[in-house]
Amino acid sequence: MNKASFQAFLNLLNDNDFSVQDRELTLQLDPKIKPEIQTILEAVGYEFDEARTVRNEKIFLSLNAANWASRSPVYESWEELFSSVSNSSKLPEYFYVIESKDSSFDKTKYQQSLVLFCTVRQLLPKLADHCEPQQGTAKGSRKLLFIIEADDGVAKYEFKPSISWKDIVIIEDIEEQIALVNKLSNLIQLGDSQDSERKSVMRSAFHELISVCHSETEIFKKFIYSIPHFHKRYVEHYELFVKRFSINKVLHEINEQDLTYTSKINEIISSAQNKALAIPGALIVIGAVMKINHVVDGIAVAIGMLVTTLIVYRSLGVHHATFEHIKKQVDSEFKRYDILNEDVEIRKQAKNTNDELIVLLDKAKKNSSFMKKAVWSICFMALLYIIFVGYSLHQNDLNQVNLDQTKNKQINHIQKRKENISKDILPTLVKKDKLKK
For the chain, does the N or the C end have fewer beta carbons within 10 angstroms? Predict the structure, then answer.
Protein backbone atom coordinates (compact mmCIF):
# COMPACT_ATOMS: atom_id res chain seq x y z
CA MET A 1 0.00 0.00 0.00
CA ASN A 2 1.24 3.44 -0.87
CA LYS A 3 -0.10 6.96 -0.69
CA ALA A 4 -1.57 6.93 -4.20
CA SER A 5 -3.38 3.61 -3.79
CA PHE A 6 -4.80 4.60 -0.42
CA GLN A 7 -5.94 7.94 -1.86
CA ALA A 8 -7.79 6.07 -4.59
CA PHE A 9 -9.45 3.92 -1.93
CA LEU A 10 -10.47 7.05 0.02
CA ASN A 11 -11.98 8.53 -3.13
CA LEU A 12 -14.02 5.37 -3.55
CA LEU A 13 -15.38 5.72 -0.02
CA ASN A 14 -15.96 9.47 -0.15
CA ASP A 15 -17.61 9.51 -3.57
CA ASN A 16 -20.13 6.76 -2.85
CA ASP A 17 -22.66 6.10 -0.14
CA PHE A 18 -21.87 3.26 2.24
CA SER A 19 -23.14 1.65 5.42
CA VAL A 20 -21.59 -0.64 8.03
CA GLN A 21 -23.22 -3.59 9.75
CA ASP A 22 -21.68 -6.56 11.53
CA ARG A 23 -18.14 -5.60 10.55
CA GLU A 24 -19.09 -5.41 6.87
CA LEU A 25 -19.00 -2.26 4.79
CA THR A 26 -21.59 -2.06 2.00
CA LEU A 27 -20.78 0.42 -0.75
CA GLN A 28 -23.08 1.49 -3.57
CA LEU A 29 -21.31 0.70 -6.82
CA ASP A 30 -20.89 3.39 -9.43
CA PRO A 31 -20.97 1.69 -12.87
CA LYS A 32 -18.32 4.08 -14.12
CA ILE A 33 -15.67 2.71 -11.75
CA LYS A 34 -16.72 -0.93 -11.82
CA PRO A 35 -13.73 -1.97 -13.99
CA GLU A 36 -11.34 -0.34 -11.50
CA ILE A 37 -12.79 -1.78 -8.30
CA GLN A 38 -10.62 -4.86 -8.18
CA THR A 39 -7.45 -2.87 -8.83
CA ILE A 40 -8.28 -0.29 -6.17
CA LEU A 41 -9.12 -2.86 -3.50
CA GLU A 42 -6.17 -5.15 -4.18
CA ALA A 43 -3.82 -2.16 -4.09
CA VAL A 44 -4.80 -1.49 -0.47
CA GLY A 45 -4.40 -5.17 0.50
CA TYR A 46 -7.96 -6.43 0.28
CA GLU A 47 -8.50 -10.00 -0.91
CA PHE A 48 -10.89 -9.45 -3.79
CA ASP A 49 -13.42 -12.15 -4.58
CA GLU A 50 -15.64 -11.60 -7.65
CA ALA A 51 -18.47 -13.67 -6.24
CA ARG A 52 -18.57 -12.17 -2.76
CA THR A 53 -17.09 -8.71 -3.12
CA VAL A 54 -19.35 -7.41 -5.87
CA ARG A 55 -23.01 -8.40 -5.82
CA ASN A 56 -26.17 -6.67 -7.03
CA GLU A 57 -24.34 -3.50 -8.00
CA LYS A 58 -22.91 -3.23 -4.52
CA ILE A 59 -19.46 -3.71 -2.98
CA PHE A 60 -19.22 -5.73 0.22
CA LEU A 61 -16.01 -5.24 2.20
CA SER A 62 -15.31 -7.24 5.33
CA LEU A 63 -13.46 -5.23 7.98
CA ASN A 64 -12.01 -8.35 9.60
CA ALA A 65 -8.25 -8.74 9.42
CA ALA A 66 -8.58 -12.13 7.68
CA ASN A 67 -9.74 -10.42 4.51
CA TRP A 68 -6.79 -8.08 4.32
CA ALA A 69 -3.12 -8.67 3.56
CA SER A 70 -2.05 -7.25 6.91
CA ARG A 71 -4.83 -5.42 8.70
CA SER A 72 -7.86 -3.45 7.70
CA PRO A 73 -7.13 0.27 7.33
CA VAL A 74 -10.82 0.98 7.97
CA TYR A 75 -11.98 1.48 11.55
CA GLU A 76 -15.53 2.04 12.65
CA SER A 77 -14.53 4.48 15.41
CA TRP A 78 -11.55 6.28 16.88
CA GLU A 79 -11.84 4.15 19.96
CA GLU A 80 -11.41 1.02 17.82
CA LEU A 81 -8.35 2.54 16.23
CA PHE A 82 -7.05 3.49 19.67
CA SER A 83 -7.50 -0.12 20.83
CA SER A 84 -5.38 -1.29 17.92
CA VAL A 85 -2.74 1.37 18.61
CA SER A 86 -2.66 0.38 22.30
CA ASN A 87 -1.51 -3.11 21.32
CA SER A 88 1.23 -1.99 18.94
CA SER A 89 2.20 1.47 20.32
CA LYS A 90 2.27 2.60 16.70
CA LEU A 91 -0.18 4.62 14.66
CA PRO A 92 -0.92 2.97 11.27
CA GLU A 93 0.57 4.80 8.33
CA TYR A 94 -2.76 4.68 6.51
CA PHE A 95 -6.19 4.50 8.13
CA TYR A 96 -9.79 5.64 7.69
CA VAL A 97 -12.26 6.20 10.55
CA ILE A 98 -15.90 5.74 9.54
CA GLU A 99 -17.16 7.54 12.63
CA SER A 100 -15.82 10.93 11.59
CA LYS A 101 -14.86 10.12 7.97
CA ASP A 102 -11.30 11.19 8.74
CA SER A 103 -8.21 9.52 7.39
CA SER A 104 -4.51 9.47 8.09
CA PHE A 105 -4.22 12.41 5.68
CA ASP A 106 -6.32 14.59 7.98
CA LYS A 107 -4.64 16.24 10.95
CA THR A 108 -7.30 16.14 13.62
CA LYS A 109 -7.25 16.38 17.38
CA TYR A 110 -8.09 12.70 17.66
CA GLN A 111 -5.20 11.77 15.44
CA GLN A 112 -2.85 13.98 17.47
CA SER A 113 -4.13 12.32 20.66
CA LEU A 114 -3.03 8.98 19.24
CA VAL A 115 0.35 10.44 18.25
CA LEU A 116 0.84 11.75 21.79
CA PHE A 117 -0.08 8.35 23.20
CA CYS A 118 2.46 6.61 20.95
CA THR A 119 5.29 9.07 21.62
CA VAL A 120 4.82 8.73 25.39
CA ARG A 121 4.70 4.95 25.02
CA GLN A 122 8.02 5.10 23.14
CA LEU A 123 9.68 7.43 25.67
CA LEU A 124 8.99 5.51 28.87
CA PRO A 125 10.74 2.24 27.87
CA LYS A 126 13.89 4.28 27.24
CA LEU A 127 13.78 5.43 30.87
CA ALA A 128 12.68 2.14 32.43
CA ASP A 129 14.98 -0.46 34.00
CA HIS A 130 12.95 -3.28 32.51
CA CYS A 131 10.02 -3.59 30.11
CA GLU A 132 7.84 -6.19 28.45
CA PRO A 133 8.00 -6.84 25.59
CA GLN A 134 11.65 -5.88 25.40
CA GLN A 135 11.83 -5.31 21.65
CA GLY A 136 9.75 -4.20 18.71
CA THR A 137 7.31 -1.34 18.21
CA ALA A 138 5.22 -2.60 21.14
CA LYS A 139 8.23 -2.44 23.49
CA GLY A 140 7.05 -1.80 27.03
CA SER A 141 3.34 -1.93 26.15
CA ARG A 142 2.57 -4.67 28.71
CA LYS A 143 4.77 -3.71 31.64
CA LEU A 144 7.31 -1.11 32.71
CA LEU A 145 9.59 -1.38 35.75
CA PHE A 146 11.39 1.57 37.32
CA ILE A 147 13.84 1.28 40.23
CA ILE A 148 14.92 4.78 41.17
CA GLU A 149 17.28 5.84 43.94
CA ALA A 150 15.87 8.76 45.88
CA ASP A 151 16.91 10.74 48.94
CA ASP A 152 14.55 8.72 51.10
CA GLY A 153 15.62 5.33 49.74
CA VAL A 154 14.88 3.26 46.65
CA ALA A 155 11.53 3.68 44.88
CA LYS A 156 10.08 0.88 42.75
CA TYR A 157 7.32 1.43 40.19
CA GLU A 158 5.82 -1.38 38.13
CA PHE A 159 2.85 -0.57 35.91
CA LYS A 160 1.20 -1.07 32.54
CA PRO A 161 1.19 2.09 30.38
CA SER A 162 -2.51 2.10 29.58
CA ILE A 163 -5.26 4.68 29.51
CA SER A 164 -8.82 4.85 28.22
CA TRP A 165 -9.79 6.66 25.05
CA LYS A 166 -12.17 8.99 26.85
CA ASP A 167 -9.33 10.01 29.20
CA ILE A 168 -6.86 10.77 26.46
CA VAL A 169 -9.08 12.80 24.15
CA ILE A 170 -9.64 15.47 26.81
CA ILE A 171 -5.97 16.51 26.79
CA GLU A 172 -5.44 20.03 25.49
CA ASP A 173 -2.51 21.63 23.63
CA ILE A 174 -1.61 18.25 22.18
CA GLU A 175 0.82 19.50 19.52
CA GLU A 176 2.87 21.35 22.13
CA GLN A 177 2.98 18.26 24.32
CA ILE A 178 4.01 16.03 21.42
CA ALA A 179 6.88 18.43 20.71
CA LEU A 180 7.95 18.29 24.37
CA VAL A 181 7.90 14.47 24.44
CA ASN A 182 9.92 14.28 21.21
CA LYS A 183 12.38 16.78 22.63
CA LEU A 184 12.78 14.74 25.81
CA SER A 185 13.19 11.54 23.81
CA ASN A 186 15.90 13.10 21.65
CA LEU A 187 17.78 14.41 24.68
CA ILE A 188 18.61 10.89 25.90
CA GLN A 189 19.81 9.63 22.54
CA LEU A 190 22.11 12.35 21.28
CA GLY A 191 25.01 9.92 21.35
CA ASP A 192 27.26 12.08 23.53
CA SER A 193 28.82 11.33 26.91
CA GLN A 194 25.96 12.98 28.82
CA ASP A 195 23.12 10.77 27.57
CA SER A 196 23.24 8.69 30.74
CA GLU A 197 23.32 11.81 32.95
CA ARG A 198 20.28 13.30 31.20
CA LYS A 199 18.48 9.97 31.47
CA SER A 200 19.24 9.81 35.19
CA VAL A 201 17.97 13.37 35.68
CA MET A 202 14.82 12.54 33.71
CA ARG A 203 14.20 9.47 35.87
CA SER A 204 14.57 11.65 38.96
CA ALA A 205 11.97 14.09 37.61
CA PHE A 206 9.71 11.10 36.76
CA HIS A 207 9.97 9.83 40.34
CA GLU A 208 9.11 13.25 41.74
CA LEU A 209 6.09 13.48 39.45
CA ILE A 210 4.51 10.06 40.09
CA SER A 211 5.48 9.62 43.73
CA VAL A 212 2.08 11.06 44.68
CA CYS A 213 0.20 8.27 42.87
CA HIS A 214 -1.67 5.91 45.19
CA SER A 215 -1.89 2.97 42.78
CA GLU A 216 -0.07 1.60 39.74
CA THR A 217 -3.06 2.25 37.48
CA GLU A 218 -2.75 5.99 38.08
CA ILE A 219 0.89 6.31 37.02
CA PHE A 220 0.58 6.42 33.24
CA LYS A 221 -2.47 8.67 33.35
CA LYS A 222 -0.72 11.02 35.78
CA PHE A 223 2.33 11.15 33.55
CA ILE A 224 0.56 11.77 30.25
CA TYR A 225 -1.54 14.49 31.89
CA SER A 226 1.60 16.20 33.24
CA ILE A 227 3.93 16.38 30.23
CA PRO A 228 4.58 20.16 30.50
CA HIS A 229 5.15 19.86 34.23
CA PHE A 230 7.44 16.87 33.71
CA HIS A 231 9.47 18.79 31.14
CA LYS A 232 9.71 21.76 33.49
CA ARG A 233 10.87 19.56 36.38
CA TYR A 234 13.41 17.89 34.10
CA VAL A 235 14.83 21.26 33.05
CA GLU A 236 15.04 22.35 36.70
CA HIS A 237 16.65 19.07 37.75
CA TYR A 238 19.11 19.23 34.89
CA GLU A 239 20.06 22.81 35.70
CA LEU A 240 20.68 21.69 39.27
CA PHE A 241 22.74 18.79 37.96
CA VAL A 242 24.82 21.06 35.74
CA LYS A 243 25.21 23.53 38.59
CA ARG A 244 26.14 20.68 40.94
CA PHE A 245 28.62 19.41 38.37
CA SER A 246 30.11 22.89 38.03
CA ILE A 247 30.26 23.25 41.81
CA ASN A 248 31.97 19.88 42.16
CA LYS A 249 34.42 20.86 39.45
CA VAL A 250 35.27 24.11 41.24
CA LEU A 251 35.50 22.32 44.61
CA HIS A 252 37.84 19.81 43.01
CA GLU A 253 39.89 22.71 41.67
CA ILE A 254 40.02 24.24 45.17
CA ASN A 255 41.14 20.92 46.66
CA GLU A 256 43.84 20.60 44.02
CA GLN A 257 45.06 24.10 44.79
CA ASP A 258 45.02 23.27 48.48
CA LEU A 259 47.12 20.18 47.82
CA THR A 260 49.50 22.09 45.55
CA TYR A 261 50.11 24.91 48.02
CA THR A 262 50.41 22.50 50.94
CA SER A 263 53.00 20.48 49.03
CA LYS A 264 54.96 23.64 48.21
CA ILE A 265 54.92 24.75 51.83
CA ASN A 266 56.02 21.33 53.07
CA GLU A 267 58.84 21.22 50.52
CA ILE A 268 60.08 24.63 51.61
CA ILE A 269 59.85 23.68 55.29
CA SER A 270 61.71 20.43 54.63
CA SER A 271 64.42 22.32 52.74
CA ALA A 272 64.69 24.87 55.56
CA GLN A 273 65.00 22.11 58.15
CA ASN A 274 67.76 20.44 56.16
CA LYS A 275 69.63 23.73 55.97
CA ALA A 276 69.13 24.39 59.67
CA LEU A 277 70.47 20.93 60.50
CA ALA A 278 73.65 21.80 58.60
CA ILE A 279 74.99 23.64 61.66
CA PRO A 280 74.65 20.75 64.15
CA GLY A 281 75.93 18.47 61.42
CA ALA A 282 78.99 20.63 61.01
CA LEU A 283 79.61 20.46 64.74
CA ILE A 284 79.35 16.68 64.69
CA VAL A 285 81.81 16.46 61.79
CA ILE A 286 84.21 18.79 63.56
CA GLY A 287 83.97 16.78 66.72
CA ALA A 288 84.47 13.48 64.92
CA VAL A 289 87.20 14.45 62.45
CA MET A 290 89.01 17.52 63.62
CA LYS A 291 90.60 18.08 67.04
CA ILE A 292 91.33 21.56 68.28
CA ASN A 293 94.85 21.32 69.65
CA HIS A 294 95.85 24.90 69.11
CA VAL A 295 94.26 28.32 69.22
CA VAL A 296 94.77 28.68 65.49
CA ASP A 297 92.66 25.54 64.95
CA GLY A 298 89.88 27.06 67.04
CA ILE A 299 90.00 30.31 65.06
CA ALA A 300 89.72 28.38 61.78
CA VAL A 301 86.75 26.39 63.05
CA ALA A 302 85.06 29.54 64.33
CA ILE A 303 85.43 31.26 60.96
CA GLY A 304 83.99 28.18 59.23
CA MET A 305 81.02 28.12 61.63
CA LEU A 306 80.30 31.83 61.07
CA VAL A 307 80.39 31.47 57.27
CA THR A 308 78.14 28.36 57.34
CA THR A 309 75.69 30.02 59.72
CA LEU A 310 75.53 33.14 57.57
CA ILE A 311 74.79 31.09 54.42
CA VAL A 312 72.10 29.07 56.18
CA TYR A 313 70.59 32.23 57.67
CA ARG A 314 70.38 33.91 54.28
CA SER A 315 68.76 30.78 52.78
CA LEU A 316 66.19 30.72 55.57
CA GLY A 317 65.55 34.40 54.87
CA VAL A 318 64.76 33.51 51.24
CA HIS A 319 62.33 30.83 52.47
CA HIS A 320 60.67 33.36 54.75
CA ALA A 321 60.21 35.73 51.81
CA THR A 322 58.83 32.84 49.76
CA PHE A 323 56.19 32.20 52.41
CA GLU A 324 55.16 35.85 52.21
CA HIS A 325 54.88 35.59 48.42
CA ILE A 326 52.82 32.38 48.62
CA LYS A 327 50.50 34.05 51.13
CA LYS A 328 49.82 36.90 48.73
CA GLN A 329 49.32 34.40 45.92
CA VAL A 330 46.84 32.39 47.99
CA ASP A 331 44.85 35.52 48.86
CA SER A 332 44.75 36.55 45.21
CA GLU A 333 43.87 33.04 43.97
CA PHE A 334 40.99 32.43 46.35
CA LYS A 335 39.61 35.95 46.15
CA ARG A 336 38.18 35.21 42.69
CA TYR A 337 35.72 32.75 44.25
CA ASP A 338 34.08 35.60 46.16
CA ILE A 339 32.35 36.80 42.99
CA LEU A 340 30.24 33.61 42.87
CA ASN A 341 27.42 35.16 44.85
CA GLU A 342 24.94 32.30 44.34
CA ASP A 343 27.40 29.48 45.01
CA VAL A 344 27.57 29.72 48.78
CA GLU A 345 29.12 26.26 49.05
CA ILE A 346 32.02 27.25 46.79
CA ARG A 347 32.67 30.48 48.65
CA LYS A 348 32.51 28.68 51.97
CA GLN A 349 34.90 25.95 50.82
CA ALA A 350 37.25 28.52 49.28
CA LYS A 351 37.24 30.61 52.47
CA ASN A 352 37.92 27.56 54.66
CA THR A 353 40.77 26.42 52.42
CA ASN A 354 42.19 29.94 52.24
CA ASP A 355 42.07 30.29 56.04
CA GLU A 356 43.73 26.91 56.54
CA LEU A 357 46.52 27.77 54.08
CA ILE A 358 47.07 31.15 55.74
CA VAL A 359 47.33 29.45 59.16
CA LEU A 360 49.78 26.93 57.68
CA LEU A 361 51.85 29.73 56.15
CA ASP A 362 51.90 31.65 59.44
CA LYS A 363 53.14 28.55 61.23
CA ALA A 364 55.73 28.01 58.51
CA LYS A 365 56.97 31.59 58.92
CA LYS A 366 57.15 31.15 62.66
CA ASN A 367 59.12 27.95 62.20
CA SER A 368 61.41 29.73 59.75
CA SER A 369 62.01 32.54 62.26
CA PHE A 370 62.62 29.99 64.99
CA MET A 371 65.15 28.13 62.83
CA LYS A 372 66.95 31.38 62.03
CA LYS A 373 67.25 32.14 65.73
CA ALA A 374 68.19 28.54 66.50
CA VAL A 375 70.96 28.63 63.87
CA TRP A 376 72.54 31.71 65.42
CA SER A 377 72.08 30.32 68.92
CA ILE A 378 73.87 27.11 67.93
CA CYS A 379 76.58 29.16 66.26
CA PHE A 380 77.08 31.32 69.36
CA MET A 381 77.18 28.27 71.60
CA ALA A 382 79.69 26.67 69.26
CA LEU A 383 81.82 29.82 69.35
CA LEU A 384 81.62 29.89 73.14
CA TYR A 385 82.70 26.26 73.17
CA ILE A 386 85.59 27.03 70.83
CA ILE A 387 86.60 30.00 72.99
CA PHE A 388 86.40 27.81 76.06
CA VAL A 389 88.50 25.13 74.43
CA GLY A 390 91.02 27.72 73.21
CA TYR A 391 91.21 29.30 76.63
CA SER A 392 91.70 25.90 78.22
CA LEU A 393 94.47 25.11 75.75
CA HIS A 394 96.13 28.47 76.50
CA GLN A 395 95.92 27.83 80.25
CA ASN A 396 97.34 24.37 79.77
CA ASP A 397 100.19 25.83 77.77
CA LEU A 398 100.87 28.39 80.51
CA ASN A 399 100.72 25.74 83.21
CA GLN A 400 103.06 23.55 81.21
CA VAL A 401 105.52 26.43 80.83
CA ASN A 402 105.36 27.18 84.56
CA LEU A 403 105.82 23.51 85.34
CA ASP A 404 108.80 23.29 83.05
CA GLN A 405 110.32 26.40 84.60
CA THR A 406 109.78 25.01 88.10
CA LYS A 407 111.37 21.71 87.11
CA ASN A 408 114.36 23.54 85.61
CA LYS A 409 114.80 25.61 88.75
CA GLN A 410 114.67 22.51 90.89
CA ILE A 411 117.17 20.76 88.69
CA ASN A 412 119.54 23.76 88.79
CA HIS A 413 119.19 23.98 92.53
CA ILE A 414 120.00 20.31 92.93
CA GLN A 415 123.00 20.63 90.67
CA LYS A 416 124.30 23.63 92.64
CA ARG A 417 123.92 21.76 95.90
CA LYS A 418 125.75 18.84 94.42
CA GLU A 419 128.57 21.15 93.39
CA ASN A 420 128.73 22.77 96.86
CA ILE A 421 128.75 19.40 98.56
CA SER A 422 131.50 18.24 96.31
CA LYS A 423 133.55 21.31 97.18
CA ASP A 424 133.07 20.72 100.93
CA ILE A 425 133.75 16.98 100.96
CA LEU A 426 136.73 16.84 98.59
CA PRO A 427 139.45 18.44 100.99
CA THR A 428 138.39 16.16 103.80
CA LEU A 429 138.77 13.08 101.65
CA VAL A 430 142.24 14.24 100.56
CA LYS A 431 143.41 14.60 104.17
CA LYS A 432 142.13 11.17 105.08
CA ASP A 433 143.94 9.68 102.17
CA LYS A 434 147.19 11.25 103.23
CA LEU A 435 146.88 9.97 106.80
CA LYS A 436 146.36 6.44 105.56
CA LYS A 437 149.50 6.58 103.65
Answer: C
- Which of residues 225 and 379 earns the better pLDDT score? 225
Do both 33 and 161 map to the same domain?
no
Residue-range definition of the domain harbouring residue 210: 112-242
Q: Do the domain assignments include residue 431?
A: no
C-alpha 294/C-alpha 309 separation (Å) is 23
- 265 and 148 together in one domain: no
Q: Are residues 186 and 253 in the same domain?
A: no
End-to-end distance of the chain based on CA atoms, in angstroms? 182
Query: What is the pLDDT of the chain when averaged over all its residues?
Result: 79
Say if residues 148 and 154 touch (Cβ distance below 8 Å): yes
| Per-residue pLDDT reduced to its tens digit, 250-262 | 666 767 777 777 7
State the Cα–Cα distance between residues 11 and 329, nearest whole angstrom. 83
**Phi and psi at residue 130, in whole multiples of 5°?**
-155, 145
In terms of domains, do 70 and 134 share one? no
Note the pLDDT tens digit of each residue in 390-436.
Answer: 677 666 667 666 676 777 777 776 777 766 666 666 566 556 666 65
Which of 213, 242, 271 represents a domain boundary (last residue)? 242
Asked if the structure places residue 434 within a domain, the reply is no
d(CA 129, CA 127): 7
Which strands form 96-97's sheet, in the order they lie side by side? 74-75, 96-97, 102-103
Place 288 in a pLDDT band, splitting at 50, 70 and 90.
very low
Q: Which of 192, 212, 242 is the last residue of a domain?
A: 242
